[in-house]
Amino acid sequence: MSMKIAAVQMVSGPRPDENLDRAEARVAEAAAQGAELVALPEYFCLMGLRDRDKLAIAEPDGDGPIQRRLAQIAARHRVWLVAGSLPLAVPGDADHATNTTLVFDPEGRRAGRYDKIHLFRFDDGERRHDEAATLRAGHAPLALDITARDGRAHRTGITICYDLRFPELYRQLASPPCSLMVVTAAFTWPTGQAHWELLLRARAVENQCWLLASAQGGQHENGRRTWGHSMIVDPWGQIVAELPEGEGIVVATLDEQRTAEIRTRLPALEHRRL
């Protein structure tokens, strides 16, 4: 009835090999604490000096050094690995990649692929960012069963960063209801400070499920500062674990009894009419 879950927080830089080594060290730390599912943050493998740097490391779907290393990490540490996000090549379009989360099972087998659907654009007069300049949006949501060591399957929805602002995606993932929603992110400092916790707790409460959020959190070599605050939120919206800034992990136990009690006491999911 329970499964230990963990979020890795990183401050990734422009060298993929170093980032992968640091990611594996954190996965090992989480596994040593009993985690069965570990999530890496968005762009764990590269926070480039320029937006187009991601295109240089974009791999074909199903093969490449980053994908092979991720499969090895999952198998070596015997965890379900929600592998943050990495750029995958778009066939026939060298100017764009997808921002993709891959999921690996404890045998190192790929269990799912999700391409970020909602692409971020921000302009406050000082800072400008438009993901569509280098990314191709996805179109298909992903929810899959994560089987814990006790044999219980936990339906898990996968989302990336800006997706968090679109509750209709989470409603679609929650049909049927999820035990867990995962958000891998690299929220900017100003948007994170204003909305990160608010949105995470809202998505957990709306869908009466656990929410695991892994984030980039600190000052990067490219000058960007990300918000961090990786956290685990329960179905009542309570934060049960949080790391404000810097590299590290947060770990908690996904307790299905807690979920069942909340859904019984307030059966909001049964009351939906639209």
Please give a structural write-up.
GO terms for molecular function: nitrilase activity. Pfam families: CN_hydrolase (PF00795). The protein is α/β, with parallel strands linked by helices and 274 residues long. The protein is 26% helix and 31% strand. It is built from 6 helices and 15 strands. The chain has helices at 16-32, 53-57, 65-77, 167-173, 189-207, 256-265; strands at residues 2-9, 37-39, 80-82, 86-90, 93-104, 110-115, 121-123, 128-130, 142-147, 153-160, 180-185, 210-215, 230-233, 239-243, 248-255. The strands form 3 sheets. Strands 1, 2, 3, 4, 5, 6 and 15 form a 7-stranded mixed sheet that branches. A 6-stranded mixed sheet has the order 9-10-11-12-13-14, with helices on one face. The chain has a two-stranded antiparallel ribbon with strand order 7-8. A hairpin with a 4-residue loop joins strand 7 and strand 8 (128-130). Helix 1 packs parallel to helix 3 (65-77).
Short structural summary:
26% of the residues lie in helices and 31% in strands. It has six helices and 15 strands. α1 (16-32) runs parallel beside α3.
> What is the fold named in CATH at topology level?
Nitrilase/N-carbamoyl-D-aminoacid amidohydrolase
Distance between the termini: 30 Å
Number of helices: 6
Give the H and E element order: EHEHHEEEEEEEEHEHEEEEH
Overall mean pLDDT:
96
Number of domains: 1
* Count of beta strands: 15
Structural class: alpha/beta
Biggest sheet character: 7 strands, mixed
Which residues sit in consecutive blocks of at least 5 with pLDDT less than 50?
none
GO molecular function: nitrilase activity
Protein name: Nitrilase
Organism: Sphaerotilus sulfidivorans
Keywords: Hydrolase
